[in-house]
Specification:
The complex is a heterotetramer of chains A (352), B (70), C (183) and D (262).
Chain B (H helix, E strand, L loop, with lengths): L3 E5 L9 H5 L5 E3 L11 E3 L10 H5 L5 E5 L1
Antiparallel strand pairs in B: 1-4, 2-3
Chain C lengths: L1 E9 L4 H14 L3 E6 L9 E9 L13 E4 L2 H7 L8 E5 L13 E5 L1 H7 L6 H12 L8 H10 L8 H12 L7
Helix pairs in contact in C: 1-4, 1-5, 3-4, 4-6
Chain D lengths: L1 E4 L17 H16 L5 E5 L7 H4 L3 E4 L5 H11 L4 E7 H7 L1 H10 L4 E6 L29 H4 L5 H5 L7 E6 L3 H19 L5 E6 L3 H4 L3 H15 L3 E5 L19
Parallel strand pairs in D: 2-3, 2-4, 4-5, 5-7, 6-7
Antiparallel strand pairs in D: 6-8
Helix pairs in contact in D: 1-8, 4-5
The chains are: A alpha/beta (352), B alpha+beta (70), C alpha/beta (183), D alpha/beta (262).
Amino acid sequence: MAEKVLMKGNEAIAEAAVRAGCRFYFAYPITPQNEIPAYMAKRLPEVGGTFLQAESELAAINMVMGASAAGSRCMTSSSSPGISLKQEGISYISGAQLPAVVVNMMRGGPGLGNISGAQGDYFQATRGGGNGDYHVVVIAPGTVQEMADCTLKAFEIADKYRVMCMILGDGYLGQMSEPCVLPEFVKEFPAKPWALTGKTPDRKQNKIMSLKLSGIDGELNAHTKALFENYQKIQDNETMSETFMCDDADYILTGYGTCARVCKKAVKMLREQGIKAGLFRPITLWPFPAKELEAACKNAKKILTVEMSMGQMVQDVKLNCGRSVKDVDFYGEPGGIIPSVDAVIEKVKSYE
Amino acid sequence: MAKGRPLINKERCKGCGLCIRVCPKKILEMSKETNGQGVSFPVCIDEASCIACSMCATMCPDCVIEIEAE
Amino acid sequence: MTTEIIFAGFGGQGVILAGKILTLAGMSEDKYVSHIPSYGAEMRGGTANCSVIVSDEEVASPVIEKPDVVVALNKPSMTKFEKWLKPGGLLIYNSSLIDIEPSRKDIRTLALPANDMAAETNNARGANMVVLGCLAKVCPGMISGVKPFEFALDEAISARNKKFNPINIATIEAAYNKDYDIK
Amino acid sequence: MSKKYEFPKSMNDVPTHYCGGCGHGIVHKLIAQVIDEMNIQQDVLLVAPVGCAVYAYNYINVDSCEAAHGRAPAVATGMKRVHPDKLVISYQGDGDLLAIGTGETVHAANRGENITVIFINNAIYGMTGGQMAPTSLVGQVTKTTPFGRNADEVGYPIRACELLNTLVEPKYIERCAVYDVPHINKTKAAIKKALTYQKEGKGYSFVEVLSMCPTNWGVAPTVAADWVKDQMEPYYPLGVFRDVPGGVTPEAATPVAGVVTK
């Protein structure tokens, strides 16, 4: 087994991307994810890859589009305001069915906000922040180890389904150091017969595009339905989640990323006080692990969603827990404040 | 002087008339009839005078004209 | 057992590095560990802090709300973080630079002349190393002596600065071998 | 009799969606001819822009990728970095290249990406129906300048070649036109030179083409051709601005300062 190393979350993502075969990385600086470009600038040349600091977030995501169209594994990373700028490219990449990975180390918003970790981009990430009918696969790791593992998974899913995958972390996860066992280098990659490699006489030209202008023929209608058939496969096969002490729980806490860790601590402390609490932590936010949540909530008296925002994931919990909306409560702190364990515990105790 | 002849794929033509203007021998003119798109297209009224200079073909934005030469 | 520590001071005192070294030392002993630094604009203007957890069980939340230990290397840090301590928690403050007394009565306190002790080991910039040696001594069960810090320094320090590792170890060792009067 | 001038092999035999007399068709044909002559159909990767030329990939039979409005040089950069041995063409209009994509344009040139940018300047937005372009002339009436472009309000049109010619890295910058046969031939030579330089790894090449948009100018195609010559050309002088391999090296291309030494 490989050795344990102490790494920042941001660095773990970068190294895992390299090990996943990512050889092209384009980005524009923004806190709190600057360790990723700094790491890639040093690391990629060692493996014959290309690091390029783009002139803007727009340029970076479109360089990713070009590099993906050309058949490579490629990535960009940013934080909330920069991810807003990338939405154009994310929509185009999704429309053109290109595989790519984008990392969002969320910070406080709206606007310039602040640079503390936050979770205000859940809607933008899971609903599709750009124009049109599409989905991005959103993976929300909760530990440095998961940041490495989920990055590998993101590249795998991106290539398998030809979709955009987002690693959705926050500033705290990005800056935090924890021991991590790095994944092995990926050696085998799927073939990409659709990629732009130069039109040879033995095949037709490859075209990568999202324009489907022929409205009368329903070209875009059919294209979008095909996209959603693909999304359905992802929903059927790729959900990830963690359940912790849910079996006999009266109260289920739900949260992702940093919030889930606060909740886990709260669950442990509540259990010490004789209160049966459990944690349900979605790891994929889209596809949302609906069945798993419903199973976890089956016997619960109350479900509490905790977020570092004013309530975004709670909508998915209400939709998918299989319970009355009245059974779902919410507690959140916006603007880069982490909900305190005490506040979560108080909230749960108020249900007794 | 070379001898040639313009081959005009009239269905590709959009009737812009740029070819007529650049012909040094002035042997192209617009048709009376129209093509499938409903526009007039160039016709060569004096093939014997064509010098295969290819200017009409070069000017054409729609690849309507090819030139045959001896 | 779980120990939650906040290191705080001004930029240049090496508080984030000290936290990182403790984290690595804990990792080398197969403890569960986490380290979160203050970062970005927060670091401009001179103050820095980090949260370190060393535990025998999985770290649920890496966020420290009520630290077991606060290490304050300058006065503003003490003022800010003293009130965070859990009742009965330990405040280690750098009495070389801090000329006020802690105000809380429900905590334990340790006046540590970190700069002076560092200077005594000919390591004028080693106040953060003094802290590490002191922590290993006064937090029993967290780190077993000085040895784990050798590995940690080797991991944490860049090649360019590795030449200072022996003197830093000496400083940590000297601090570890002292007896402390916790009030 | 044999074919002296024939339909380019690397063009798809489909009708284009361009209006009669539009310059895009001419430039598409020139690109296809150059691809045929250089035998590089297998090597060319084309980036199609947003604007009238978005369907360029339907006409030029090479592997192609669409780019969002203004982002073609960024997409081209990504493709070129993955395939440094391929010849990447970024084909763009004036709104794409000089308004919404100014940043991408300048920075791809400034990095000296070994790509070829072909810039169709027809002084108007075609696809959206005739609005002011960054290259619309002062006094030019468009849908959004109904009283003529007023320089006091919106400034003077931008000259792309002159702008890029202030940078160090570009290797070849030329402005051409397609309003008559001699200039069409020069344009073809410029495209060929640009792609040859790219093939030889020389660096960034930029070919601007003054072109006709009869529909949105509201004139006949022949009048449009004259308008390019009489109205556009005086403000946008034709010629080679820079040809570093060929010995035309402006001062801006040879910096004497700005390098930090250790």
